[in-house]
Amino acid sequence: MKVMSIIVVIAIVLFTLFAYMSYASNKKVERQKYDLVKSENGFEIRFYPKAIMASVSSVKNGNEKDANQNFRRLAGYIFGGNKEDQKIAMTAPVYMERDAAANKMSFVLPSGYNMNDLPHPNDSTITLHYSDERHYAALKFGGFASDDKIARKENELKELLKNSGYEVVGNFNYLGYNAPWDVINRENEIIVKIKYNEVK
């Protein structure tokens, strides 16, 4: 019994240490910049300046393999899978666009780059482009994000925007800020472009 108690204590200490190291590492990752315009009832209005993104799309088959495949393609690009054999730092968040026909995933590239600096992807399915510079609505939530949970949060934001009189433009995006192995302090968001009147 005493040995078992010691094993449990050691396991708890190791888990806590791993969770702390993972959390500390995540805080060092560059995050996409935005200006907080205002906080509404349950969501935020933000202004995002343009950023360079690497994106890839795949036909939607209704399973997680699509997202995993897209992630591997983009990760391959920033980890040296490009014509210059150049590594690019990982940033946060990872974008996943909510669309009925296709899965689209995007990495935000570090702010120190411009379009002329970037290495050319070996994978021809990866596109480099600027994001839209405009206002977005954002809803934050924690924990692990299943497809069902993401859909619920999307509907929640949709209802909040409708009740607040904001018009949605385009598709919703899920934003993930953590590595898959992070188990504490997980951060997720649903964002969508909106028509925003500064005097509203």
Offer a quick outline of the entry.
The protein has 200 residues and is an alpha+beta fold.
What does this structure look like?
- Strand 2 (35-39) and strand 3 (44-48) form a beta hairpin.
- It contains 3 helices and 11 strands; from the N terminus they run αββββαβββββαββ.
- It has one domain (31-195): Regulatory factor, effector binding domain (Multidrug-efflux Transporter 1 Regulator Bmrr, Chain A), CATH 3.20.80.10.
- The chain is globular and about 50 Å long.
- The model is unreliable at 8-26 (pLDDT under 50).
- It has a 9-stranded antiparallel sheet with strand order 2-3-9-11-10-6-7-4-8. Strands 1-5 form a two-stranded parallel ribbon.
- The longest helix is centred in the first third of the chain and has 26 residues, at 2-27.
- Helices cover 30% and strands 32% of the residues.
Q: How would you summarize the topology of this molecule?
A:
Elements: H1 2-27, E1 30-31, E2 35-39, E3 44-48, E4 52-59, H2 64-78, E5 91-92, E6 94-97, E7 102-108, E8 127-130, E9 134-142, H3 147-164, E10 167-176, E11 187-195
Parallel strand pairs: 1-5
Antiparallel strand pairs: 2-3, 3-9, 4-7, 4-8, 6-7, 6-10, 9-11, 10-11
Largest sheet: 9 strands, antiparallel
Number of strands: 11
Oligomeric state, counting identical vs distinct chains:
single chain
Helical percent range? 25-40%
Mean pLDDT across all amino acids? 85
Could you name the ranges where pLDDT drops below 50 across 5 or more consecutive residues?
8-26
Structural class: alpha+beta
Shape: globular
Rg over CA atoms, rounded to whole Å, is 19 Å
In CATH, the homologous superfamily goes by the name: Regulatory factor, effector binding domain
What is the H/E string? HEEEEHEEEEEHEE
Number of helices: 3
